[in-house]
Amino acid sequence: GAVVSQHPSWVICKSGTSVKIECRSLDFQATTMFWYRQFPKQSLMLMATSNEGSKATYEQGVEKDKFLINHASLTLSTLTVTSAHPEDSSFYICSASRTGAGWGYGYTFGSGTRLTVV
Amino acid sequence: AQSVTQLGSHVSVSEGALVLLRCNYSSSVPPYLFWYVQYPNQGLQLLLKYTSAATLVKGINGFEAEFKKSETSFHLTKPSAHMSDAAEYFCAVSFVRGYQKVTFGTGTKLQVIP
User: Fold this and answer.
1) How confident is the model at residue A99 (pLDDT cuts 50, 70, 90)?
2) In chain A, which end has fewer C-beta atoms inside a 10 angstrom radius, N or C?
3) B 88-107 near A (Cβ less than 8 A)
4) pLDDT tens digits, residue range A39-80?
């Protein structure tokens, strides 16, 4: 149980276009999902916390107009990189926590999306 | 503020040798601590977690970690390394209650030498 599906795994887009990344909890409901960005050989940096039915909470320094997050249901959150530029190229990972679970449950991560902007 | 420090960005061990990956935490309240493993171009997989119960935590793939409050440490160990253990390992911390934010360490890349 506790599977998070992230799609697509790889995406190459042209500079100036927008890209949508989906994060789905397949067998559980997730009130809260998290979006991370990982640069090569670096750790994960939390970009934003996505809450079902409300606005996302962005970390300091993350442009909310560039990284649009929508959490329309208890099983789906999307991250849209708008007007992508080469500096947005990175590995994006989502995670989710089972709704109502205690802290001991931990988080389940998606398999990540490698975004390359050319 | 909470944080974790992983000592050593790269660790090399021989196959069959002890694996020891170090993690120290800083938290103003009782922490929850996690170890995750990441294989190339993949997401993170939870190895084990400390949630204020037993201080010695056993995880998957033969890994274990011990929470030592006096040393503010949560080191990851495995008695005998396998080639398949070669990956990146991340230590992470979260508060016991309330805020759900998880803070990750910078990661340790484990190399297993045949």
Assistant:
1) low
2) N
3) 90, 94, 96-97, 100-107
4) 877 888 999 998 888 889 999 999 999 999 998 888 999 999
Q: Is A43 helix (H, G, I), strand (E, B) or coil?
A: coil
Please name the residue of chain B whose CA is at the shortest distance from the CA of residue A10.
Answer: B41
The pairing of strands B64-68 and B73-78 is antiparallel
**Hey, what amino acid is at B19?**
V
Which residues pair with residue B77 across a beta bridge? B20, B64
Could B36 and A109 be called an inter-chain contact, meaning their C-beta atoms sit closer than 8 Å?
yes
Report the pLDDT value the prediction gives residue A101, as an integer from 0 to 100: 55
Q: Which amino acid is at A54?
A: S
Find the CB nearest A104 among B42, B51, B105.
Answer: B51
Q: What are phi and psi of B95, to 5 degrees?
A: -70, 155
Answer whether B57's CB lies under 8 Å from B48's CB: yes
Contact B21, B107 (CB under 8 A): no
B101–A46: do the CB atoms touch at under 8 Å? yes
